[in-house]
Amino acid sequence: MTGPHIELNRAALAHNVAQIRELLGSDVSLMFAVKSNAYGHGMELIAPEVIAQGADELAVLDIQTGVAVRDVVPEAPLLAWLLEPLDNYAAASTHRLELGISTVEQLTMVAKSAPKTPLVVHLKVDTGLHRNGATANQWPEFFTVAAELERAGVITVRALWSHLADTSIESSLSALSRLQDAATTARDAGLHPEIMHLAASHGALEVPETRLDMVRFGILGYGVSPFDHHTAEDLGFRPVLTLLAPITRITEDTIFLGMGYRQGLLSPLTPGATIRVGHTPLELVAVEADHTVLRGSFSPEHLQEGMMVPLMGANAPGASVEAWAGWTHTIGDEVLVRLHPDIPRNFSDAPIDS
Q: What range(s) does the Alanine racemase C-terminal domain occupy (predicted)?
């Protein structure tokens, strides 16, 4: 390897899927989110692997990504929910995507696309987060139009769903109550969705009542915590990703690694970040365009240019994704999704604890 690369631990991913399945039990389905290039891990690798390991369904943000996922996962149910007016709704039908629908206007766009077979939709309602979804005053018209299109054979309403704000247990239970109210209004309009889903990683752990028929697991499935007060490993999940970068230059007290912000590495905003080279912790002093600069005392006789150094993640002691999130004053999701898609990625079959 002449540049940075990303190694994915297959055993860790399998462990996480199994952990989720045990948490949810046999009556709750697992929808695994592979949005944003599978949180920077590499969609083409992660999507088929999680289905092989026991996930029931997949989720992405947009139709274009859904079409790409369908190339590597031909059969599993696949939801795309962040829709735009100029999206290709016909492509969603052709590639058997399920769509998260939030407005009457989106229902109209589906009808205009004239799907040859009913397009499967998940009707989204706002339950307090205000991140799209039909609001309570819009429910009667929204559900009435959906029911008319279902009777006409244009759509099949499979699900009613929403997002949690994850700000408190009370807010999540309130959202659950609103979703149940929406379900009553939907039934009054003649709809009978097969399932309801509300929780993602955070809600599924903190408020079990919100698991309902299916949970959308995202960042925690990759071994990165959505919580401020617990690491993923505290919760029994293992980090999947390790970012490695080659040593490109060594001076008396400085090591340069071939990975920088042009490849998507965020720069720490506060002092104190350290990276281990071998067993030696070195201060991370700068993230430059194409290099990360480490400084400190080390024994150069065991180092050489081209040697790969774990810079972040599972095999980088003290430099987990969560640690990087702390150093850069953001969340683990943001640290990961910035990693450039052109960085080579591959699965490792090493044991989890190696």
A: 240-348
DSSP character string of 66-109:
HHHHHHH-SSS-EEE----TT--HHHHHHTT-EEEE-SHHHHHH
Residue 112: burial class (beta carbons within 10 Å; 0-12, 13-18, 19+): exposed
| Proportion of the chain above pLDDT 70, given as a percent | 99
pLDDT at 354 over 60: no
Instruction: Check pLDDT > 90 for residue 230.
Output: no
Specify the CATH number for the domain of residue 153.
Answer: 3.20.20.10
- The residues that bridge with 248 in the sheet, in sequence order, are none
Between the two ends of the chain, the Cα-to-Cα distance in Å is: 20
Q: Report pLDDT for 90.
A: 94
Residue 206 lies in a domain: yes
Nearest residue to 166 via CA among 225, 214, 108: 225
Using alpha carbons, select from 93, 98, 89, 91 the residue that is nearest to residue 59: 98
Same domain, 196 and 60: yes
**Residue with the two structure tokens 């029911």:** 147
What letter does residue 125 receive in the DSSP assignment?
Answer: B
What was the pLDDT predicted at 26? 95
Domain that holds residue 289: 241-348
